[in-house]
Each structure stands twice: as structure tokens, then as C-alpha cells.
Design brief:
The protein is an alpha/beta fold.
């Protein structure tokens, strides 16, 4: 059964995830993939996501898929019941997932009941294709990426950080450019999208 928890900013939806984890009885182990942040100057959101999981009592296993071999990455994902993929550069993230041949495995694991948590880039790759995110993210850092076909676990194209600096301008530009062509789902930093099978719910964190 497909179970996705998607957001712009994981630390900004801490209480929503706490409720979700409690309801789902997720256990206390999370496989944490920070790879999308490797090419970013600012990585504070990764530390905040780590801290959020730890605050909620999770044991966090960090796996940088760019720094390990394919067999290790596949084995870790295969064993995982809860997978978190961080924000960062969406194109670099997709490149590294494809290099280790992980997309089909992640899809299989989601179908088999693994809960997928995606923040920003990690949420965007659940779309059919990530080309629409080239206004927000620099595609040039992913020189080995031959195509932008992604997980296609969501029937929408998530657009994170709407109205949120420093992404307000690029998010609005993406909205203006693609809203007539794609089913965009805009999120601010205090909203999360839950996907269960085919049901889609947008929730808002109480500030």
C-alpha cells in the first residue's frame, strides 16, 4: 500500500509527522538519505531534519548514496520500513539514485508497504518527471543525468516553498510557467501532503 509523507520543510511539520508516525505505528528506525544536499552551500535543513527525528525518538541511520556502492544502497533500502530523503538539488539527487539503480527498488518497496518521507527535493522526485523544477534548482550540477523521469508515485507535481524565502520568486515563477500544463501542488513550509493509495490530503501544521 502506497504511503507517502511529503513536505517542503520537515522541521516545519514536526507535529504533523509526530501524529502521522503515531497513527501508523512506524517503529523507531529511519533510513535517512541526505544526498541531495551534497551540492548545496547551505545544509542546515538536513541537520534540522536529523534533530527532528531524534527529538521524536527515532534511531537514524544516515546513508549517502553517492558515497556507497550500489549493493550497499540497495540492501539498506530493501531492509527499510521507513525511508526519508532530504531536500537539496533535485537533479543531483535523481542522478545519484539512477546511478545506483534505486528508483525501481524504491517503487517496489513503496508498493510493499514501506513509508516514504520526502522533504523538498525528496518530495519532488515522487512526480512523474522533475524537469519542471529547473527554475528552482540548477540542472547543471547533474552532468551525468540523461533524463528527468522520476519515481511517478504521485499524480501531481509538488512545488515546495511557495511564499517562502529564499525560494518565493522561483516558486512563483514555476507556478506561473507550468500551472496550465501540469497538476502542480504548491506547499509552504508548514504544510504536508499525505498520499495513501490514491487518496491525497494536504495538512497544515499549527504554529
Amino acid at each position: 500500500m502506497k504511503q507517502l509523507f511529503l513536505c517542503s520543510y520537515f522541521a516545519g511539520v514536526k507535529n504533523l509527522f509526530k501524529q502521522y508516525a503515531s497513527k501508523k505505528q512506524l517503529g523507531k528506525h529511519v533510513l535517512f538519505i541526505p544526498t541531495a544536499g551534497n551540492v548545496e552551500e547551505y545544509r542546515g535543513y538536513i541537520d534540522e531534519a536529523l534533530q527532528t527525528f531524534e527529538d521524536l525518538g527515532f534511531q537514524v541511520e544516515v546513508l549517502d548514496i553517492s558515497a556507497c556502492d550500489r549493493e550497499t544502497a540497495q540492501a539498506k533500502i530493501f531492509q527499510s520500513k521507513l525511508l526519508y530523503i532530504s531536500g537539496g538539488n533535485t537533479f543531483y539527487l535523481l542522478q545519484e539514485l539512477k546511478k545506483k539503480q534505486l528508483l525501481s527498488l524504491i517503487k517496489e518497496q513503496i508498493a510493499d508497504g514501506m513509508v516514504y518521507v520526502g522533504e523538498s527535493a525528496g518530495a519532488i522526485i515522487t512526480a512523474k518527471d522533475i524537469d519542471y523544477n529547473k527554475i528552482m534548482d540548477d540542472k547543471e550540477v547533474a552532468g551525468e543525468l540523461s533524463d528527468t523521469v522520476a519515481l511517478h508515485e504521485a499524480d501531481f507535481y509538488l512545488l515546495p516553498h511557495v511564499g517562502e524565502e529564499p525560494f518565493a520568486e522561483s516558486a512563483q515563477s514555476t507556478l506561473d510557467t507550468y500551472s496550465d500544463q501540469l497538476h502542480l501542488l504548491p506547499l509552504n513550509n508548514h504544510q504536508a501532503v499525505l498520499v495513501e493509495v490514491e487518496e491525497v490530503k494536504v495538512l497544515v501544521e499549527n504554529k
